[in-house]
DNA sequence: TTGAAAGCGCTAACAA
DNA sequence: TTGTTAGCGCTTTCAA
């Protein structure tokens, strides 16, 4: 059964297609009786207007997009996506309890903010993701179907055709800063966050020797690493360089270094991690090696994701206003009404330190 | 600066628009040299194909939709969505820690499954929500822009034009069962879940007197309520009817009844709650009244959301395979390739009881 | 208040 | 292998 169109409705209602369109889009511009005829005909014919056609005609889609780069690859579930059929087996992973080490993470909280704001504004949300690093044309696909697009940075972001996109559609980078492109950047005050962490470790816990762990693959991570180096120097702190990893590598070299440091007893008094997920991993490795946190070593994270609060011990971290960031992205995009920015915009949002117990504090 | 189109690219590359289209959609059908010309021209012109135009021409959009009904209204944040500007203030709620009583909930875990499967299949996800119960034409809007649509049931779902939609686009109802419409229904084995809960309370904790609390506004809730009534009768258990609320009301009448029962000391030995969120609320009210769980009364939930596991005490509940349900929805929709079902389909998924401590068990 | 008609940008026969 | 061309369904001037 063919889908019915304006033409079908128009014929059935005995009016023109223009009137059908008006009956839906500008109800007040149409005589009540006419409108009723149209609506009735539409109901009988199961008329569902084509958003594609409308988008084409209007030059807008009414949707805002959020693009995440190879999220799947970074999450354990990604690999289990095949077994959709054997749910009856008792040991199916679908029955395991929710695991907050996998969800919700940083991107999820931002996504949630984005969705809230879009719904608030009556925009629909389009979610896209590349399955493989090579598929960077998928971002162009989604860019072509929205009035504005928010993008998460990631390793591989450099390959994305962001320079072209931002000339065609309003583009927001989240957790990233770019002053060369005519797009908006929303990021948090990484420097202030790292400083407050370091100061806390020094001033409250009298640490004289610390290091930094993390993959320096994005703007955020780089900012934190730089802030660490700088502030630690400024405070005259010794740095256990054995651990420092300022490589751009995607592999987790720091794990090797950390294990070596454990084996050779070269651990610093404290480790500042690039983010909560890294901190979680570091803590697991240390714990497995019989090293206690915070008795034997202090750990800090960054981001303030849910898992940081519920890990044992809870992680002392810096919380980004993630929901807010997502909402701001949607707001900025919506306000552009489809018109790309003509100069770089940036929004640096404040952060707040959250004291857990991994730094040696007692939080009741 | 006008967005460039196939025509612009075609002219610049010195080919026809068809060739431009082919160069992108069927790269192998175009001579290498020609394709290169096209791609170069496209890059120079910042060409971003219009998904609307493609959707129109192809009759498909490549997106799958997920529609939630008035989610915002049910969540505390919904009301705070205005203050997007004053983030510098120290007490901004954006800095509060993630609150799992608000997110992620039942729908979020399903949504996540839906997203995972869509990404896996290379489909984009369209998220839509009605801001107000009256805005039920928004679902038609999103139905018009996807190749398949999943819908959450809710109070108010009855007002939705589901009968018309399911004749135009493949439709999946999640957490709902409908044998009258030509759509698919994905729901869990509510009856088995309730039975295992009741049996546990009776057989392990020797409960002889229990009741049920919840708003009976959706298929799931109704199923659980019915299963409760039936199984409790079958096991010859006394029911504290003072608490039973089988009304269809949206207001939370059960709160009143619960408070009365507390005041008059009419509480049963155990309360089976319609879902985890209700259980959380019930526990809060009881705790505030100085009643201890599980010492003074046993509580069970349903769903297995994250907050149930981390509440104190952890809630004994029944876990639905939520991620799986979302994934199944996406899979079914994708497989229809835009063609509506011509008869009702239903998928009842198994559940599993998860022992917490709210039932009186000790889980270390 | 309604109708006629010209696009919107892309795709896919069909031809060449 | 590439070009021509007829739509896809809706919106929106402009006229009536």
UniProtKB/TrEMBL annotation, chains A, B:
Residues 4-58 form the HTH lacI-type domain. Keywords: DNA-binding, Transcription, Transcription regulation. It comes from Alloscardovia omnicolens F0580. InterPro entries: HTH_LacI, LacI/GalR-like_sensor, Lambda_DNA-bd_dom_sf, Peripla_BP_I. GO terms for molecular function: DNA-binding transcription factor activity; transcription cis-regulatory region binding. CDD domains: HTH_LacI, PBP1_LacI_sugar_binding-like. SMART domains: HTH_LACI. It comes from the Bacteria. This is Transcriptional regulator, LacI family.
């Amino acid at each position: 059964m063919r889908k019915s169109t304006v033409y079908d409705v128009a014929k059935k209602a005995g009016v023109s297609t223009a009137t059908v369109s008006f009956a839906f889009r500008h109800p007040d511009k149409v005589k009540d009786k006419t409108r009723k005829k149209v609506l009735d005909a539409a109901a009988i014919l199961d008329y569902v207007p084509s958003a594609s056609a409308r988008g084409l005609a209007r030059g807008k889609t009414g949707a805002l997009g959020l693009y995440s780069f190879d999220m799947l690859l970074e999450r354990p579930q990604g690999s289990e996506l095949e077994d959709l059929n054997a749910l009856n087996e008792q040991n199916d992973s679908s029955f395991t309890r929710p695991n907050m080490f996998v969800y919700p993470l940083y991107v999820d909280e931002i996504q949630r903010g984005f969705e809230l704001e879009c719904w608030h504004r009556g925009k629909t949300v389009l979610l896209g993701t590349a399955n493989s690093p090579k598929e960077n044309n998928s971002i162009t696909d989604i860019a072509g179907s929205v009035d504005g697009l928010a993008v998460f940075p990631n390793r591989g972001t450099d390959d994305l055709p962001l320079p072209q996109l931002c000339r065609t559609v309003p583009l927001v980078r989240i957790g990233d800063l770019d002053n060369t492109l005519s797009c908006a950047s929303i990021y948090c005050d990484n420097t202030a966050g790292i400083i407050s962490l370091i100061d806390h470790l020094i001033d409250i816990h009298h640490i004289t020797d610390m290091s930094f762990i993390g993959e320096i693959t994005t703007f955020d991570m780089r900012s934190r690493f730089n802030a660490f180096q700088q502030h630690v120097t400024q405070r005259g702190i010794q740095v256990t360089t054995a651990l420092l990893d300022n490589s751009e590598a995607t592999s987790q070299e720091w794990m090797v270094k950390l294990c070596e440091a454990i084996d050779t007893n070269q651990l610093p008094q404290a480790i500042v991690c690039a983010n909560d997920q890294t901190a979680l991993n570091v803590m697991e490795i240390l714990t497995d090696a019989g090293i206690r946190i915070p008795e034997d070593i202090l750990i800090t994270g960054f981001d303030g994701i849910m898992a940081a609060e519920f890990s044992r011990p809870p992680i002392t971290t810096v919380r980004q206003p993630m929901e807010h960031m997502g909402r701001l992205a949607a707001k900025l995009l919506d306000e552009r009404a489809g018109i790309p920015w003509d100069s770089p915009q940036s929004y640096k949002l404040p952060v707040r330190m959250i004291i857990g117990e991994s730094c040696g504090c007692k939080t009741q």
